[in-house]
Specification:
The structure is a single chain. The chain is α+β, with helices and mostly antiparallel strands. It has a single domain, classed as Alpha-Beta Complex (Nucleoside Triphosphate Pyrophosphohydrolase). About 20% of the residues lie in helices and about 30% in strands. It is built from four helices and eleven strands; from the N terminus they run βββββββααβββααβ. A hairpin with a 5-residue loop joins strand 1 and strand 2. It starts with a strand and ends in a 6-residue tail after the last strand. It catalyses: isopentenyl diphosphate = dimethylallyl diphosphate. Pathway: Isoprenoid biosynthesis; dimethylallyl diphosphate biosynthesis; dimethylallyl diphosphate from isopentenyl diphosphate: step 1/1. Pfam families: NUDIX (PF00293).
């Protein structure tokens, strides 16, 4: 089985968990699992980040709180109640934003549903993912890692679309997975942060499409 060494954190096998793959010679790349965290504070503002310019895919783009993938290790492969995905999310919240895992417990993370999408980043790299959507509502201390995050800010529900429009006016676009969630789900979920259980759907994988941008 082919494998890649990923920043010294062990091996990620190409057939299931690698987030970024060389897509030369294929339009689809490798389908793999990923997760997207949407963290809200007690004012119901969403924490956004601008991805570092050093990122392989979609560098410099604004996106939701944290986006990554589980490693090929037992703790992050456990499927019961999406425990592996939630553990991976806590790990990456710390790596990217300096959020202490003690501040966000497994029980603080709500697994809502999954989306399936694919999008090229450039002629070489792209994404082809089953993306687990995770919500957290908690006040946390953040200390963004400049190797991962260029900028971070909280945005209210009423300000998110004007913020995205202002980015577009500057020739910037948000990440494709964040765009799909904004266009299809985010506002209804955001309006019901205190009653998310009715949106929990662990059987459906929503197949969404996005254009190259």
């Amino acid at each position: 089985m082919l494998s890649l060494r990923w920043f010294g954190q062990g091996y990620i096998y190409c057939d299931c968990t690698c987030r970024c793959r060389d897509t030369r010679g294929t339009l689809d790349g490798f389908l793999h699992r990923a997760f997207s965290v949407f963290l809200f504070n007690s004012k119901d503002e969403l924490l956004l980040q601008q991805r570092s310019d050093a990122k392989i895919t979609f560098p410099g783009r604004f996106t939701n709180t944290c986006c990554s993938h589980p490693l090929h290790v037992p703790d992050e492969l456990e499927e019961t109640d999406a425990l592996g995905i939630k553990r991976a999310a806590r790990r990456r919240l710390f790596v990217e934003l300096g959020i202490d895992p003690k501040e966000v417990s497994i029980d603080d993370i709500r697994y809502l549903t999954r989306i399936l999408y694919k999008a090229p980043s450039d002629s070489t790299w792209g994404e082809n993912e089953i993306d687990y959507i995770l919500f957290v509502r908690k006040d946390v201390a953040i200390k963004p890692n400049p190797n991962e995050v260029k900028e971070s800010l909280y945005v209210s529900r009423g300000d998110i679309l004007p913020f995205i429009s202002s980015l577009e006016g500057q020739g910037q676009v948000i990440t494709p997975w964040f765009k799909l969630v904004v266009e299809n789900f985010l506002f209804e979920w955001w309006a019901n942060l205190h009653n998310l259980s009715k949106f929990e759907d662990h059987t459906t994988i929503h197949r969404l499409t996005t254009k190259s941008s």
